[in-house]
Amino acid sequence: MAFTDASLTALRVFREVAERGTLTAAATALGYTQSAVSRQIASLERAAGAPLLERRHDGVRLTSAGRIVLRRASAVVDQVDAGARELAGLPDEPSTVRLSWFPSAGAALVPRALAALRVTHPAITVDSREGRTPALVRALRAGTVDLAVLASVPPFRPPDTETPALELQTLTERSLHVAVPAGHPLARGDYIDVADLHGQSWIAGPGSAAGGGAGDSTGMGAWPGLDERPRIAHSARDWLAKLSLVAAGCGLTTVPASLAPAVPPGVRVLPVRGGPQERRRLLLARLPGPLQEPVARLAQVLRETALTP
């Protein structure tokens, strides 16, 4: 059996599995049974003459052959979909840009950038979605999004080790801050001394004892580097839930400085002095290669918006 015998359905299923990271998640997204997804993957592997996925306890990982097939599969599926739209008289795909972003970017950066884009380039349509960093990277690799806004923490490693390496551009690099209840004693000044963070109660994401996550909503938590085991009083995945708990006087949490304009009433966001400075980078990620003009326009607006206080 030759790879040219691979069905379009199998290519679509494979791209979905590559993006979602598990057969179960892909089956749910496609409305298939897991066994149907497994059959499609098996048929594609027979056509390719090589294993395309490495089955692991936490999902699947693309093999070297799988990465090659994914690039080709994405191109084929996109071309078929573009042809279908053209036949149906719908707008061509280059006028639509697919953007993904980590949760807290949706609080300020993304809405501001999309509003600016509507003013300067109203013909460009943006479809966007939120996700955690691993899912955003898989979507880029699968070709189902064009750009991804990621957050990075020291030591600022690449978001994955696949080849070719993703192209990363730093939009901003800012200090990590602490959100405190407006009525808290620490809220009286213009900054917090790191020594005053000892013994505080913290609000963090599930399984996170520190504020050094990989840029997801669960990354907010206790101040990194405390010489004590922080007391996690409340655990919440959603960033707005964390800040609402802060407003209610339930504890403190870390926040990127970029989130300060979006905090709810009753919360002050303050810098921390003393000890190592905790930095966070906001990154724009994409696959290497030339950009279509609408994608380049959105990338430019995101860069400009990130630099605007």
Number of domains: 3
Mean pLDDT level = 85
Q: Indicate the overall shape.
A: globular
Indicate the CATH class of the largest domain: Alpha Beta
Q: With helices defined by DSSP (H or I, 4 residues minimum), what is the helix count?
A: 8
What is the CATH H-level superfamily of the largest domain? Periplasmic binding protein-like II
Computed Rg: 22 Å
Structure description:
The strands form four sheets. Strands 3, 4, 5, 6, 10, 11 and 13 form a seven-stranded mixed beta sheet that branches. Strands 1-2 form a two-stranded antiparallel sheet. The chain has a two-stranded parallel sheet with strand order 7-12. With 309 residues, it is α/β, with parallel strands linked by helices. The protein has helices at 8-20, 23-30, 34-48, 64-87, 109-120, 133-142, 239-247, 293-306, and strands at 53-56, 59-62, 96-101, 125-130, 147-152, 167-181, 192-193, 201-204, 231-235, 253-256, 267-270, 272-273, 279-286. The protein starts with 7 loop residues before the first helix and ends with a helix. It has three domains: 3-87, Winged helix-like DNA-binding domain superfamily/Winged helix DNA-binding domain (Arc Repressor Mutant, subunit A); 93-171 and 281-306, 3-Layer(aba) Sandwich (D-Maltodextrin-Binding Protein, domain 2); 175-278, D-Maltodextrin-Binding Protein, domain 2 (3-Layer(aba) Sandwich), CATH 3.40.190.
